[in-house]
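INTERNAL AUDIT FORM
Audit reference: QA-55
Scope: verify that the stored structure record matches its stored sequence.
Auditor: D.O.
Record contents follow.
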Amino acid sequence: MTVMEKAAVSENVRNYMDEVYQKVLERNPSEKEFHQAVHGAFESLAPVFEKHPAYMEKGILEQLVEPERVIVFRVPWVDDNGKVHVNRGFRVQFNSAIGPYKGGLRFHPSVNVGIIKFLGFEQIFKNSLTGLPIGGGKGGSDFDPKGKSDDEIRRFCQSFMTELSNHIGPDRDVPAGDIGVGAREIGYLFGHYKRLKGGYPAGVLTGKGIGYGGSLARKEATGYGTVYFVNEMLKDAGTDFNGKTVVVSGSGNVAIYAIEKAHEFGAKVVACSDSSGYIHDKDGIKLDTVKQIKEVEYGRISDYVKHHPGAEYVEGCANIWSIPCDIALPCATQNEIDEASAKTLVNNGVKAVAEGANMPSTEEAIHVFQKNGVLFGPAKAANAGGVAVSALEMSQNSMRLAWSFEEVDAKLHGIMESIYKNAKEAAENYGQSGNLVAGADIAGFLKVADAMIAQGNI
């Protein structure tokens, strides 16, 4: 597959970008998610290289696709029965042109270096779009926190941080949470970092508890931000959330708080999911029940029907996209909407799709949405609210102060409006009017690329 199959660009640009992409494939075999992320970005960026050939001459793409540093390490830990387990830890420090590396830690059995590189690559653009001084990074482990006791999770986190602490710092690399890493895990990680390094380095991790340096509205930020972004898309189309039917995949922080904000805006959310299956409540999801199950009991979404017998639970996640809706918010994991699911959504009348998760739609699915005039908000723009408030948490830590929930939420709302505006304008400026995928990639790229050139092609 070549990068420039459909782009109206010169043969010189086409050959250059295809050559760089082929090197990505050769140097990173079997990392299909990373290939997908790079390919998608390259499709968007072609008009930039046509208009500004200096980026080719400076070798910006060649540098952008190669992480500044990849760290892989052993994480031994002991379970409650005294048995030793060994997992693998990762941190990809991808690009520091505009600020310290910033990106979450994911604890999930699917984690490997290709997954972390795809997430880190996307993070470069996403962090740039926020307008805040943060570079791109990502990390995690193939450790599965499900079914583990608190003591086992604590011992794993301490072992993980023993090595990770050598590579991070408030002005160097600032991790946060992601799938499998919530407030509990961040607390254990921060406590061990503090024990190892001494002092009170509050800015080394974000997503911390409110009582020890965390930011109000951080937990809500990604979900709220996604809905704020969608609201901008809808306003441009002359409509809003009020009275709309919404389907949200996932039931973690992103999904829960996307549901909460969608409810506030007058929508009815009728479905959400976890890795086992999904629930469909025609009368509208009762969010208090979901919060109790997922945030307090750490249970399965199937428990919802015990409290609300009129709802339906279906095993398996894929068919959640067969539920008719006006707005779809994939907030679970990568590649959860494929071409067939996209066509089903379109046939059922979906008007807008926005990605709360990282790369939850395949390229084929995105093309289906765009071809059929569906408003589409790509992940690196629509879900940037989480990292934006993480950066605001860093600011509060540096200034030794704390903003109110309302202050942080207002800043988040403004950032998401600016991301939408900048992505829209970038698309228009490069002949991609209405294509927010291209606009987000272009707007994010330009800031990073110019900083790399200014600093001597770092």
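Auditor finding: record pair retrieved intact. The two ends are 29 Å apart (CA to CA).
Action required: none
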